[in-house]
Amino acid sequence: MTPFEPKIVGFLCNWCSYAGADKAGMSQTPYPPNVRIVRVMCSGRVDPQFVLHALENGADGVLVLACHPGDCHYKEGNYRASQRHRMMARYLTQLGIAPERCRFDYVSASEGERFVQVVTEFTEAVRKCGPMTAVGSAEETQAV
Amino acid sequence: MKTAVYFCKCGSINSDGIPLEALRSQLLGTPDLAYIKQVDYLCAEDGKQWLEQDLLEEKPDRVVVAACSPREYEGAFRQVLEHAGMNSYFLQMVNIREQVAWVTPDSAQATAKAAHLIKGAVARAALHRPLQAGEIEASPNVLVIGGGPAGLKAALTLAEAGRRVVLVEKQPVLGGMPVKFEELFPTMECGPCMLEPVLGDIFHGKYAENIEVLTLSHLVGVTGYLGNFNATIEQAPRFVDETNCIGCGMCIPVCPVTTANEFNCGLDQRTAMALPFAGAMPNVPFLDNSLCVRSKGEACQLCLEACPVEGTVQFDQSVQRIERKVGAVVVAIGATLYDCSNLPALGYKQFDDVYTSMEFERLLASNGPSGGTVTTRAGDVPRSVAIVHCVGSLDRNHIPYCSGVCCQYAFKFNHLLTSKLPGLKIHHFYKELVMPGKEEFALYEHCANNPDSGFTRFAEIAELSVVAEGGAKRVALKQAGREPISVAADMVVLCPAVIPAEDSIGLGQMLEVTRDKQGFLEELNGRLHSTQSKIKGVYLAGTCQGPMDLQKALTMGTAAAGYVLSELVQGRKLEIDPISASVDADKCSGCKICGAVCPYKAIAHQADGNAEVNALLCHGCGTCVAACPSGAITGNHFTNDQILAEIEAMLR
After folding, report:
1. Whose CB has fewer CB within 10 Å in chain A, the N or C terminal residue?
2. What is the pLDDT of residues A66-93, one digit of tens each?
3. Could you report the per-residue pLDDT of B358-391, keeping only the tens digit for each?
4. DSSP B262-291
5. B175 and B147 Cβ atoms separated by less than 8 Å
6. Does A56 contact B at CB distance below 8 Å?
7. Which among A47, A51, A102, A120 is the top mutation candidate for probing chain B, defined by the most B β-carbons within 10 Å of its own β-carbon?
8. Contact A39 B70 (CB under 8 A)
9. Neighboring chain A residues of B523 at a CB cutoff of 8 Å
């Protein structure tokens, strides 16, 4: 059996975190290949249904990255995203899904290293959660 | 649907780790994917030409470019599509260089990741809809609010560029604060001498006909948006016709009513018919109706009788409502000073001869209440003056920031006092001394070299107090663990923090311009876009954005004019970015959640309660799209179906 490799969907805002990921690329810092990036103009565009849709369709984890507080290109979209994330964490718990499967964080346009760190940490966190098929398992229930 | 994938080798950066054949086999069976072609450098001129030619020959419906970051080349490839006769939004880029090739050393992993991203892009692209940039007519005219240095400079610059400007000033005269200063730091130029030529140009210069000056006026309402604002201005009656008046001032001394003259900080009296100070412009007196005995029913018309030009004094003037259509608004309403009464230990309004810096400016001015003669209230020549810097500044209990101008004018006071009253003892109390810049050290050096000047640093303003001992004032400094100090001060000058003008609250709300933590009108970005507000078409200049000196205020005025000129180019329509939100009226429930989350006030609610997005104001962030509980809002080019399809396909 091949070892479990988590599938992760990452929603990155165009102005800060996507640019941060580009920085990681330009500095050619390797990081786990598990995150598949969806570019949105603003983290405020990340509809909670995107997160659920990803988990429903085979993602083991979802990453939402935004501009740092006060830095949002659209003034306050990152605050909306942060509010929605808190709500999403509670909702996932109700569904019996470990909230650790969804992470919200801030990465600026210059923080290539931070992007690498967040992706690496999150990949390991999701790896610990196991595949989404494990939802309802003793481990997942305990995590919830 | 025929979707083409163009794989850019980027030399060999992408192709080394992601071999085309391996990629091709992983993409087998991808719906809509018609072909994959590999190119050496797609972004190079010959690469783009080849792509254009290939698109013309292959005629795909959608194009996926697997290359570098869309942040870099999306615009360029959109142009290629356009040249090939395709809608440019039928493009989707996949970032296989920054997100895959450069960061995934293992070739198998890199190829698999690239394949997933390309599948997502192909699925998404199939749902791309043709989009076109819209156009809208725009007025090139500009409303400038505030007739201080920043507003004047903005108005004059715009007028010189051929724009019609409406300049609104709430006072009866223009010039703002510095026109009342005898000398200006750092070079001791005469304030009126510097500003009066600017005022002269505004009223009588070559481009004066482009500027409509509305004094005694304020903005009472504004509707619309960039390019199409409708401003409503209310103008109080002056009761003196500005075109007839010859500025002789004969109406003034005959006026029987007097009051404290607010233009000299209440340090002298003015009549109800008044000109704020000598040299004020426009050189036309105004009648203060709240004081005039006619408003109390008396039949006085002494001013009218004294006026040599018939029909100039017009008692029948009334408040005018003036409507103007403009394309942009420049806000330059200035700032005010922190109230020194908040620091009672400093004796302001308790002792005679304790002045704010603004009051002291007027005392030093030759057109001020004392004609520039510096004497105490008792009429004596002062032997000692204490100047307290940092009054309320750099203090969490008062104002946390440094205003950056006070040290300079404090040294200017020292210079002026020394030349007026040689031998005068001048003592500076300060928390920090601030004098950046290439010219600013000179005044400090002058003070420091003055044997009659002293400097004492305090840690907290609370350590300072103004006390009276046997009728003589002293400034006392008490610091823990140190011997108390006290310095004789026949006069005390307080240099308070520069704070937001009261009007910034109401005007900010009216124009929907946000205010920052300190209450100043907030820039789109304090450094990159420092004269743009967060509302498109509303620009900021001068001390309404924060404390600044005259040089910076004038520069900001010019900069704001520059922004207006480049945003509203005469004869050019405004382009509307198609990446914006739009509302499906049939689905909208009128809950107004979208309006509450929109950072740009781009969403209005019609009479039937339905939301409507103004595409010109919309920045396309999509926050409203995610917030709409009815799914009634479409975020163009980032629609739900496009993103959901991308998610699904990239996980396959």
Report:
1. N
2. 999 988 989 899 999 999 999 999 999 9
3. 999 999 999 999 999 999 999 999 999 999 999 9
4. GGGTTSSEEESEE-SSTT-BS---EE-TTT
5. yes
6. no
7. A47
8. yes
9. none
Q: What CATH number is given for B336-500 in this structure?
A: 3.50.50.60
The band of A134, judged by pLDDT with boundaries at 50, 70 and 90, is low
CA distance A139 to chain B (A): 24
β-pairing verdict for B611-613 and B183-184: unpaired
- Please name the residue that has the structure tokens 């609610």: B605
* A118: contact with B, CB 8 A cutoff: no
Query: Which residue in the block uniquely carries the two structure tokens 């946000």?
Result: B514
Q: Is A31 on the interface with B (CB under 8 A)?
A: yes
How many CB atoms are located within 10 Å of the residue B295 CB? 13
B47 vs A: CB within 8 A: no
Nearby residues of B552 by Cβ (< 8 Å), 6 or more positions away: none
What is the DSSP code (8-state) at residue A4?
Answer: P
Q: pLDDT band for B252, please (50, 70, 90 cuts).
A: very high
Q: Which residues of B touch A53 (CB under 8 A)?
A: 644, 647-648
| pTM listed for this prediction | 0.81
ipTM of the complex model: 0.96
Architecture of domain B3-126: 3-Layer(aba) Sandwich (3.40)
A26–B contact, CB cutoff 8 A: yes
Pick from A37, A47, A59: CB nearest B651: A59
pLDDT at B525: 83
Cβ pair B627:A58 closer than 8 A: no
Q: Is B591 at the interface with chain A, CB within 8 A?
A: no
* Domains of chain A with bracketed CATH: 8-143 (3.40.50)
CATH of B577-636, one of 3.40.1260.10, 2.60.40.10, 3.30.1330.80, 3.30.70.20: 3.30.70.20
B30-67 pLDDT, tens digit per residue, is: 999 999 999 999 999 999 999 999 999 999 999 999 99
Contact B508, B298 (CB under 8 A): no
- State the Cα–Cα distance between residues A81 and B336, nearest whole angstrom: 38
Residues 110-149, chain B, touching A (beta carbon < 8 A): 110, 112-113, 116-117, 120
Cβ-Cβ contacts under 8 Å between A and B: the total is 124
Q: Which residue of A has its CA nearest to B115?
A: A36
Tokens 């190079």 locate to B44
Contact B610, B590 (CB under 8 A): yes
Distance, in angstroms, between A138 CA and closest chain B CA?
A: 26
Contact B599, B623 (CB under 8 A): yes
Does the distance separating the beta carbons of A45 and B622 come in below 8 Å? yes
Cβ atoms of B191 and B185 closer than 8 Å:
no
Exposed/middle/buried for residue B377 (C-beta within 10 Å: 0-12, 13-18, 19+):
exposed
**CATH 3.50.50.60 holds for B135-235+319-329+515-531+559-576:** yes
**pLDDT value of position A140:** 72
Q: Does the beta carbon of A77 lie under 8 angstroms from any beta carbon of chain B? A: yes
Residue recorded with tokens 């290439």: B438
CB environment A69-78: b (16+ within 10 A), e (fewer) = eeebbbbbbb
CB pair distance less than 8 Å for B112 and A41? no
Inter-chain touch B625–A47, beta carbons under 8 Å:
yes
- Does residue A7 sit at the B interface (CB-CB below 8 Å)? yes
